[in-house]
Design a protein that fits this description.
Blueprint (H helix, E strand, L loop, with lengths): L4 H13 L14 E5 L3 H13 L5 E5 L4 E3 L4 H5 L9 E3 L8 E4 L3 E5 L4 E4 L4 E3 L2 E4 L3 E3 L23 H11 L6 E5 L10 H15 L6 E5 L8 H11 L4 E4 L1 H4 L2 E5 L4 E4 L2 E4 L2 E4 L3 E3 L1 H5 L9 E4 L4 E2 L5 E3 L4 E2 L7 H20 L8 E10 L2 E12 L2 E9 L6 H23 L1
Parallel strand pairs: 1-2, 1-9, 2-5, 9-21, 11-12, 11-17, 12-13, 19-22
Antiparallel strand pairs: 3-4, 6-7, 7-8, 10-18, 14-15, 15-16, 19-20, 23-24, 24-25
């Protein structure tokens, strides 16, 4: 299964237009959709509902940031394959589709009155609410770690200044440095992401001529996404540089100490020059405060629509959700947004709908022109979003195929950015 920019946008257009022309508006106030969160889920949905309802629905996107830095491809920035400007995007393109973008934080949701209270005190009424808040970091899931500690030991799992801090630290290392990464427990944003990050760190060190530096990955999981592919790549491109440890090898993370740059495990202590702590995660605060999450910290949804399992007038998208077999990724959020946009438009304008279909692909760059991927197609089944077809790159693939996969990766990024923001 290949995805390039033309195919990505073509598929998006087909999804939007297949039987989706809104019914004529009746003589009453336009229905109101409020979207909280301007990432791949929220911004996509706002655009699709506004554009494809042909003005029949009033759409407001609430997002405090005026520029969105993508977490996807931020590892490529870390590895010098992209600059920071290329992963930074604004919301100006949404206005031409009729989206009203409000650059404020949403402070609270009142499901009884169907209103969203903004930081300014303004209350936005809604007929349907879409919550796409991404993730929050569970700082206390790693003993000794905190939001303050992240200014010394960055997580960089929410993009922006944290990503730039990690990049600055990486670029300042001398040969012989030790990097320690604490990998996250399941579930978390972008399952292959930590291991692509390890690859990009190794790429930078290798390019700078490091022969003595090491990257030690301490993982709470016994295995991880694309493991055989990453291990093969590390051995081929960065021999002796990357050491991955599962829980049996390190015995468990006991604490981190930013003041001494040490990480202590059951079986040893590591003194490092750079520590990248990626803690456990949960749905964004606005979703949790509104009671949309369950005991896992994430939000259950109805697989046919992305409708919240807690409130029929609210839809939840992206990393904040419990999405069955779908991983937490930008591609997933974008795909989920199109399904929810279709359902919401159908409800509010009596336009036709069709059965939900979801897709995802995650690409990972290991070294220049050596990229691997994993993905699948998904449908509602047995009460969850279920994989009906999956694929993954194979070990031992030839160099030309891996180079083509990287070209596909870059084309996808261009395509999804246009699909979200243009």
């Amino acid at each position: 299964m290949k995805t390039n920019r033309r195919q990505f946008l073509g598929g998006a257009g087909a999804l939007a237009t297949a039987g989706m022309i809104a019914a004529p508006a009746i003589a009453q106030a336009k229905p109101r959709v409020v979207v909280i969160g301007g990432g791949p889920g929220g911004a996509t949905l706002a655009k699709y509902v506004a554009r494809d309802s042909q003005g029949a629905i009033n759409v407001t996107l609430v997002e405090p940031l005026k520029e969105f830095v993508t977490c996807f491809h931020s590892n490529l920035y870390l590895g010098d394959f992209r600059d920071f400007a290329s992963i930074t995007h604004n919301y100006s393109g949404l206005a031409k589709h009729g989206v009203n973008v409000v650059h404020e934080a949403a402070n609270s949701i009142n499901p009884e009155t169907r209103t969203v209270r903004l930081a300014s005190g303004v209350a936005l009424p809604y007929d349907r609410l879409v919550v796409a808040p991404g993730i929050d970091i569970k700082f206390d899931s790693v003993p000794g770690y905190s939001e303050k500690a992240s200014e010394i030991m960055p997580h960089a799992w929410k993009p922006g200044p944290q990503t730039q801090l990690l990049k600055k630290q990486l670029d300042s290392l001398d040969d012989g440095a030790t990097i320690v990464m604490i990998c996250p427990p399941n579930p978390y944003r972008c399952p292959p992401g930590p291991y692509e990050r390890i690859s990009m760190m190794a790429h930078v060190l290798k390019r700078k001529g490091h022969t003595k530096s090491k990257i030690i990955a301490l993982d709470p999981k016994a295995n991880f996404s694309k493991q055989a592919l990453f291990v093969e790549g590390w051995e081929r491109h960065y021999p002796g540089m990357v050491e991955w440890q599962d829980p049996k090898m390190h015995g468990g993370i006991k604490s981190v100490d930013p003041s001494t740059m040490t990480v202590r495990t059951d079986l040893g202590e590591y003194k490092a020059q750079l520590v990248n702590v990626i803690p456990a995660q949960m749905a964004g605060k606005i979703a949790r405060d509104a009671g949309l999450a369950n005991e896992t910290g994430f939000c259950p949804i109805k697989p046919e629509s992305m409708q919240s399992a807690k409130d029929a007038n609210i839809y939840v998208l992206g990393d904040a959700t419990i999405a069955g077999d779908m991983p937490k990724s930008a591609f997933s959020a974008n795909s989920q947004a199109k399904v929810a946009a279709m359902v919401i438009r159908g409800e509010l304008t009596k336009s036709p709908t069709f059965p939900a279909r979801y897709t995802n692909t995650c690409w990972s760059l290991i070294e220049t022109d050596d990229t691997v991927k994993v993905g699948g197609r998904y449908e509602p089944k047995d009460g969850k979003i279920t994989a009906v077809e999956t694929f993954v790159s194979k070990t031992g693939e030839d160099a030309e195929l891996r180079k083509q996969t990287q070209a596909e990766n870059m084309g996808w990024y261009q395509g999804i950015i246009a699909d979200i923001f243009a």
